[in-house]
Amino acid sequence: MNRSLLKKCLSESRLLLLACSLGLYLFCWLRCWVVGQFEMARFQAVLEQFRDFERFSPVPFEQLFTFAGRVALTYDEPVVILCVSVWAISRGSDVVSGELGRGTMEMLLAQPVSRLQVLASQVSVTIAGVGLLCVFAWLGTATGIQTTTVKELGPPPTWQVPGLGLKVPNPLAERGTVEVRLRDKVDVRVFVPAAFNLFCLGYFLAGLSTLMSSWDRYRWRTIGLVVGFYVLQLTMKIAGIASDSMAWLLRLTIFTAYEPEAFVSTAVNRPDEVWSVWIVDSQSRFQDLGPLGYDLILLVLGTLALVAAAVIFCRRDLPAPL
Amino acid sequence: MLVETHGLTKRYRQVTALSDCTLGVARGEIFGLLGPNGAGKTTLLRLLLGFLRPTAGRATVEGLDCHRQSVAVRGRVAYLPGDARLFRQMRGRDALAFFAGIRAGGSLARSRQLAERLELDLSRRVAFMSTGMRQKLALAATLAADTPLVILDEPTANLDPTVRGIVARLVLEARERGRTVMFSSHVLSEVEEVCDRVVILRAGQLVHTQPMAELRQRHRIRLQLPGELPPIPESLRGQLTIVARDDGAVTLETPSELSPLLGWLATLPLVDVRIEPVGLRSIYDHYHHAPASGPNADSRGLLTGSP
User: Fold this and answer.
1) Complex ipTM, two decimals?
2) From the candidates B55, B80, B102, which should be mutated to test the interface with A, based on the most A CB atoms within 10 A?
3) What gap in Å lies between CA B307 and CA B301, rounded to an integer?
4) Confidence band (pLDDT; 50, 70, 90) for B105?
5) Where do the structural domains in chain A lie, given as residue ranges?
6) Which of A46, A169, A281, B11 could hold B55 in an S-S bridge, CB 3.0 to 4.6 Å?
7) Which positions in chain B have a beta carbon within 8 angstroms of at least one beta carbon in chain A?
8) Which domains does chain B carry?
């Protein structure tokens, strides 16, 4: 890696990074505050109306009737995924085809730096940026949890038995709501697997964009191809969930490996499995991949894409600027 | 030789951008590359920098293979691309600092000095610079690198005549400091002014090598006679070539000193006589307009150089 190249990459991307980080932090904070605005009972009543569509939920509705479950929905919000995707795709696509399109690759590679150094500098900044965004998302969630209060039904009213000093619950009286701090209901650490899952998705997208960029010379085409792939994969997931006959599509989409809510559920209900690569039953038989297993799928695919990008870029002819 | 190519060839599917190019550039030489667009000049330069993988043959700079050891080669070469584009978000001074910092032995002071000579405002962002200003900035960044070889691909494109003159002086100064310069341009007068040797490329082939010292001795004599040209004396036959003859007008060329010819010319019944240096233009036009038929193609026996 080269210090000057790193500095250049940072200076090119700092505004986007700052905007995405700030956006993520504030959105995740706001999202926790929104959770505090709706009483759990009302939220539950609304969600019960959609019981027929539960299959589209990544976790059973019962999980969503907990504060941790409701906050975990943050990591499936389009804004959160968009911020990470925009960063990963825009920086990944810039690595080769961006520089070629602007005509600056010529001056850059006229210097005594290897193509691998150029790629490594760009990729390092991109991956570090993805990491930073996920840290900001988690920090926003943590800040939201620390500062939000939620309303819930208070204990049933009681009446005192005269002369005996006994307090007896009064089932006829209406229960009032009380405000409690969200931090007393939710442990911020359970969202670390969700933030890490978001990082893995960003890492994969950065790898894929870099791969597409490595052989292309037009950045717009690189972005178009990656976004097309993204939409296709998302469609495959929706189709796979919607119809049993198309469930096989779930095996072919990377979004099967992006399940932050399910990982939060695991962290809450089965904390010993949250960093497992796979989950086995009591007889040590394989049941399913663990959260880390799904994360590893994204990390391995992203790494393979980056290796392929390096090979392609180091071998290709460098076209003259247009 | 500092730069050597042996049978260097680059083909893209059906198109041959450079074919079997063999040349050498000596240390301290200013070496010109001439040819129309698509002749293969830039392909040759890009092969030297390792931007392209040769289809056949090889190129070396200081004995280092340009493809396999391209990073080491680029450590010894300062290159100005034909269409130099710099990082738009940077200010001029930041761009110079970047290029000085990325190269071992790079000097920001030297590039600032060059920018000052080129009368360049370094406080402006590259995105807001005119094409000429960007070219000056790229020139300052390139020429400041302390490398044995400087490759300039059309360095004066987009520059005004004053700055063109400064660039020519900078190139000559580089040679004075012992650096070698490879110089590609469409401006023949510029090439004539600074180069020690030029090669002419056509359709990917190196068709002619011309030492400039030899060219500067060559003259063209245009005679207007009332009748036929008398036979050329035996003693001058090796030194004179009849280039054109048309109704009393005869054009002769000589590759050597003029003085032996003047006595003979004085004996002719001349109506008019004009003597002028041959110049690069005629050499260039000769190859530019003649059909390609391989290296050193010369159907009229006009030129004495060899590739």
Assistant:
1) 0.81
2) B102
3) 15
4) confident
5) 3-150+184-315
6) B11
7) 42, 46, 49, 51-53, 70-72, 74-75, 77-90, 98-99, 101-104, 138, 141-142
8) 3-213 (3.40.50.300), 219-277 (3.30.70)
